[in-house]
């Protein structure tokens, strides 16, 4: 089994350097937290140049200014944590940014399983306290459905609709080939998930445990995501003065204007991002305004009396392509849509084009005015007035 794991690591880290760098558990925690989008809860205490270099090298891609390059990429992440004692060489972390690049490093001293479980639970608490990520194309919310069939039953859990955590141990009996298949499936997609794969060796009973092997960090005041506590509709039953009002046909999608009789026109009112059923999604969004289709965005958590959230159905928008004939040539016009019912036209390209052109013109005009002002402020050379004399007295 040790040979197969060695082959697995060598195949995954084919683009990594031959000598793996070794980092402390504190630095490893900062790297994983930054990759999971939880860096706001983790601060660097007494940093050194080596730790900063490792965080910048392995912390994952950083968001671009104004979201210029990766504005439509998925923020979903997959954390695979295997702790079964098979990695006898030490704790190893393998990371993939979903672009074919694989890197790895080692953790100098592996914490105990209890400390690892506490760290993962704190990661979950921090992730669920964050607001849901904006994803108009629904790429983040579909990440768990794409890899669910590759994971063992009831092992893959999604938190705040973007963080997928797969925890494995000896009882799972997941072979190396299954892990390679899961890793290859994630890496093979065009907009693949970013993956952090952590393997922990069997903890030594004779090793001395530290008080905080992963370091210190902060936890949010609210331990549950706001999406797990939906607001209930407050209603009162006053005695009607005249005739009673007609009953509202359906309140499952509150807040929505319920007097929409037309199912083909534009969608009016405020629509929620999630619907309980597929029929409710198609009815309230008028078939996603003809610019997409209703799909299951994510499954509810729990079942039966322990059910915490329900299934979420929503619109997955698709672009509209129109071919325009211009003489002997044919041009294509692509229109992108957004919003809970795909009713809003995406004009971000036109907006940024207008902003860039406006800023460029303002820069050119201000530069021209400044150049003219600087030229007019210069003194004339003395050679021009050298041959000029004053009037002669008579």
UniProtKB/TrEMBL annotation:
Name of this chain's protein: Uncharacterized protein
Highest taxon above the source species: Eukaryota
Membrane spanning stretches: 351-373
GO cellular component term of the entry, any: endoplasmic reticulum
Extent of the signal sequence: 1-18
Keywords, in A-Z order: Membrane, Signal, Transmembrane, Transmembrane helix
Domain Vacuolar sorting protein Vps3844 N-terminal: 21-126
Domain (Vacuolar sorting protein Vps3844 C-terminal): residue spans on this chain: 274-386
Key word Transferase present: no
Pfam families registered for this protein in UniProt: DUF6859, Vps3844_C
Keyword Transmembrane attributed: yes
């Amino acid at each position: 089994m040790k040979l197969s794991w060695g082959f697995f690591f060598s195949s995954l880290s084919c683009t990594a350097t031959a000598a793996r760098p070794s980092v402390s558990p504190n630095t490893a925690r900062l790297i994983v937290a930054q990759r999971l989008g939880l860096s706001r809860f983790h601060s660097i205490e007494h940093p050194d140049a080596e730790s900063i270099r490792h965080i910048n090298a392995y912390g994952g891609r950083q968001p671009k200014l104004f979201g210029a390059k990766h504005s439509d990429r998925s923020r979903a992440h997959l954390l695979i944590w295997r702790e079964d004692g098979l990695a006898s060489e030490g704790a190893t972390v393998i990371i993939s940014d979903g672009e074919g690049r694989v890197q790895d490093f080692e953790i100098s001293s592996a914490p105990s399983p209890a400390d690892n479980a506490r760290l993962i639970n704190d990661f979950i608490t921090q992730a669920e306290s964050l607001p849901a990520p904006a994803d108009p194309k629904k790429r983040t919310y579909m990440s768990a459905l794409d890899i669910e069939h590759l994971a063992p039953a009831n092992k893959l859990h999604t938190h705040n609709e973007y963080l997928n955590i797969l925890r494995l141990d000896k009882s799972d009996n997941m072979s190396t080939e299954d892990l390679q298949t899961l890793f290859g499936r994630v890496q093979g997609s065009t907009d693949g998930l970013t993956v952090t794969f952590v393997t922990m060796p069997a903890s030594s009973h004779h090793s001395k445990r530290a008080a905080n092997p992963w370091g210190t960090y902060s936890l949010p005041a609210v331990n549950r995501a706001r999406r797990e506590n939906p607001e209930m509709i407050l209603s009162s039953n006053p005695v009607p003065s005249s005739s009673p009002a007609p009953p509202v046909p359906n309140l499952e999608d509150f807040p929505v204007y319920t007097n929409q009789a037309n199912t083909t026109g534009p969608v009016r009112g405020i629509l929620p991002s999630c619907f309980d059923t597929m029929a409710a999604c198609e009815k309230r969004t008028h078939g996603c305004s003809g610019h997409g289709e209703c799909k299951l965005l994510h499954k509810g958590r729990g079942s039966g009396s322990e059910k915490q959230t329900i299934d979420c159905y929503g619109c997955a928008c698709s672009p509209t392509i129109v071919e325009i004939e211009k003489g002997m040539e044919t041009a294509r016009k692509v229109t992108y849509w957004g919003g809970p019912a795909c009713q809003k036209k995406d004009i971000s390209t036109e907006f940024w084009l207008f902003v860039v052109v406006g800023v460029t013109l303002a820069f050119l005009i201000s530069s021209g005015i400044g150049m003219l002002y600087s030229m007019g402020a210069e003194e004339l050379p003395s050679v021009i007035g050298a041959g000029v004399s004053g009037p002669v007295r008579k």
